[in-house]
Amino acid sequence: MTTTTTTATTTGTSISATSRSAGPADPVGADLVRTLRQLKLGQMTSTLPERLVLARQQKMSHAAFLELILSDEITRRESRSAMLRARTAGLDPTMRLDTWDELDDLTYDRALLSDLATLRFTDAGNGVLVLGPVGVGKTHVACALGHIAIRRRLTVHAARADKLFTRLRAARLDNTLDAEVRKLARVDMLILDDFALKPLDATETNDFYELVVERHRRASTIVTSNREPAEWLTMMSDALLAQSAVDRLTSGAHTLIIEGPSYRQRHPHRRADIDHQGGQQ
């Protein structure tokens, strides 16, 4: 059964070309469409005609054909589920690893990025620091790792650091801070984008410390920043809390440094789109 399905699925990657050479796709009757919709399988009607052609060409058994179309449905549902979970997580849908521009004028450890894409760092709850100047794609890399995590059924939350601290400040005002911190502490992968872009006041420094302590060695945190961790210390109002938080965050963390010209300068015609999306920080 497995061998038959693998062959059919591989051939199915060129269904359109195959069906064109074999003539028109098999029509799907109204009764069958109605039945599929009653079973909440209505999306199957978009690929079923081509699959029928494929089954006839390859003389597939009934069991193999059934397995093929059900595999299609599983793939559709998993893709839709991942898309919805990524949206809820705050991930930019365009910032994936397959859309990452590996340009020659960007300098970074490609072997490290490949290793990070395996998400092995999440097994031990280690963090990732993505550092570099403005516009080199730090946000893109962090979001790409988030999308991989979503596909692997990990929980993800991505937010710009200043907006997250604003949310925590509001939670403090309506006495929901503890619940908000607990929720963020339980997330498998927390992405803090543009950290330490501007100084953190006493409240923000304290909230950062609490988040890091709650997540230390329990869950992975990805931080993107234009500054080195040593500079973070000078950006926070409480030196002791800052030192304690940064020490925990950087301990065991993987550091990916990206250097090169700004993406906005390389692609000026797309600047408006990037700025609207939050930038490739």
Description of the molecule:
The chain has 281 residues and is α/β, with parallel strands linked by helices. It has two domains: 2-88, no CATH class; 90-277, Rossmann fold (3-Layer(aba) Sandwich), CATH 3.40.50. Helices cover 54% and strands 9% of the residues. It is built from 14 helices and five strands. The chain has helices spanning 2-11, 15-21, 30-38, 48-58, 62-89, 110-116, 138-151, 161-173, 177-186, 202-215, 229-235, 239-250, 263-266, 271-277, and strands at 128-131, 156-160, 189-193, 220-225, 254-257. The protein has a five-stranded parallel β-sheet with strand order 2-3-4-1-5. Strand 3 (189-193), helix 10 (202-215) and strand 4 form a beta-alpha-beta unit. Helix 8 (161-173) crosses helix 10 (202-215) and helix 10 packs parallel to helix 12 (239-250). The longest helix has 28 residues, at 62-89. Residues 1-23 and 274-281 have low confidence and may be disordered.
